[in-house]
Structure formats: structure tokens, C-alpha cells
Amino acid sequence: MKLNKTYSAVLISLLPSASVFAAGLDRSGQSISAFLQPGNYAEAGISVLDPTVKGTDNNNHSVSDMGDDYYFPSAAIKVQATDKISLGLLYDQPFGADATYQVDGSDFANGIEGTSVEVRTNNLTALIGYQPNENWNFYAGPVWQTVEADISLRGAAYRNLGYTIKVDQEQAYGWLAGFAYQIPEIALKASVTYRSEIKHDANSTESAAIIPAPIKSTVEAITPQSVNVDLQTGIAQNTLAFANLRWVHWDQFTVSPTLLKHPMINQDLISYSDDQYSITTGLSHKFNSKWAGTAAVGYDSGAGNPVTTLGPVEGNWNIGLGAQYSPAESYFIQAGVKYFWLGDATAQTGGKPKAEFYDNHAMGYGLKIGYRF
Predict the structure, then answer these.
(1) CATH 2.40.160.60: does it fit domain 5-95+120-143+170-200+221-372?
(2) pLDDT tens digits for 31-46?
């Protein structure tokens, strides 16, 4: 049952990022699989999402596709400094949003421009691991994170406020810790990783039709704590079964800028009511020394319903296929694709339903290059 180290270590990452269209603002899935590779290892990848998100507002107007295409990169390097000490540096963009409502007569546009949202985060995670023997790995490290946003709310759904907020890039720090256990002879590997929440107090500029001039304010946003559980084991010659489980604490997540808390407005910018639970499971098979493939299915619970109008889906089901080509044992190229059935959702603002979104879908694509040195 023992498999080639390169194959058993990297094959389960063939698919596009597991959370490429997940609950809340979740995107990358915050995997640390690169850090758990044997020996010295580096990788770089990119994931792309092409969503279609349409619906009907309260006045029975059709809401055109408001989901923008977006991409996000990732990179990692891991060094086995000694037999017992490993070091790693991981980069990803864990949370974000991209949406633009069209000027289509719906309640999310004012006849000139539509509601739009762009949220960006960057994560840099430094890790140190201790391996007392070949089976156990204990690891921890700090996390540096930035967040920025540019959001415009337009149309009757927002009481024609003409509200705009620009959040300056702000940095903050958190941490992670976890452990992994493996039995190389049967390609068994299991890991549990906890990430702390990270609190941001970001400078912002807000404006609206009810005030004479833009105001400077501070926005508090707490990116949520999470737990990832990864499992894999050999089940037949050159065949692996794997699963990823993820919990994200979106329950009671709220962003309420100063101007939106004004008694004349009194609404949140972003609000989620439930925690997110997701699972991806599948099989990987090595066909020969150069080619391998993966098939997987996944489920994401969403972060509650009704949902924010800036991301009006409630979870998803998905199916993915991936392939890996290894010209030599020291490096490989991976590509994958996922199809998402997006959950129907009621979009709300100010605590009141504003539209129904249904029968939506998305396509995700991923490309990764890995090198062992």
C-alpha cells in the first residue's frame, strides 16, 4: 500500500480551492497542506471563479447576474530544517467578495449605477513544526492579515441612500496551531488545524445622500476563527480516499459602519447568522509514473438565510475533477475544475427581505505548480 511520497503528499490538492464559493466571505479554505509535504517543497497556484447569480426583487423585477468573476493566487514554501524541525511560509487570500448589480430596473440600481462590492484580504502565515518521530507533527505560528473594501449601495433596496464606503487597507495579527499524524506505509495522514479570529479596526470614508459631506470613521471587522480537519488513507494499490472538513465561526458576524448605524438608517453592511460547515470527499488514483487524477464531491452549509444582498447564496453542493502531470519526480503541474450548485437564498437589508435568488451556479478553475528541492 505504500505510495510514492510525491504522489501521496500532493495529490489531494488537485482541485481548485475547496472554498472557492463558500459561505460568507470564505474563499481559499485556508489549507496548510503545503506545510505537511515531506522534505523541502514550494508551490504556487491560482483559482478562478465564474459565478452566475440572478433573482427577482420584491417588485417582481428580474435581477440580472450580479456575481463578478474573480481570481485569487496562493503560494507556499516549506523547509525541513532538521530531522525534527520544519519551517513554512504560506500566502493566500482567505476572505473576499466581488459583485456588481446591473442597471436593469431592479431595486439594486438607481438608473445610473448599480450596487457594487469589492472586499480583499491577504494572509501570510509563518509556521514552525516539531516532529518527535515520523508519525507526529505539532505546529504553530503567527498570521499577518490585511483587509480593504470598496462598497456602494444603490437603489430602492437601500432606501435610495446613495451610500458608499471605502475601507483603507488595514493590517492585524492572529495565530494558528495544530497537529498531524501519519503512517506512511498505508498513506494515512490526518491533521487538525485551528486558526484564531483576527480583529481589524480600519480607517474608512463614508458618504450618503443624507449628509452634506463624506465622513471619516473607523470600521471594526473580525475575520472568524476556524477549524480544518484533513484526512487521507490508501484504500487500494495507487488509490487514496480523502476528506476535508471545515468549520468557520460566522455566527453573529456583523459589520456596522458609523453612518449606517445612524438612527435614520439603522442597518448593517454585512451580517451572517449561522456558522459554516463544509465537507469535501473523494478519491485520487495514480495511473502511471507521470499521470494521476482526482474526483470529489462537496457540500457547504452556508452562513444562514436570509443572507446579505452582497452575496445572496446559501451554501452549495459541488463536484470536481482534477489531473496531475509529473514530468519528473521533483516537480508537477496540476489543473482542476469544479461545478457548484448554489443554494437558493432570500437577500435582506435592514432586516427586511429585498429579493429572492434561485437556480444559480458557478464554475471554478484551478492551476498549481509544485517543486521539491
Answers:
(1) yes
(2) 999 999 999 999 999 9
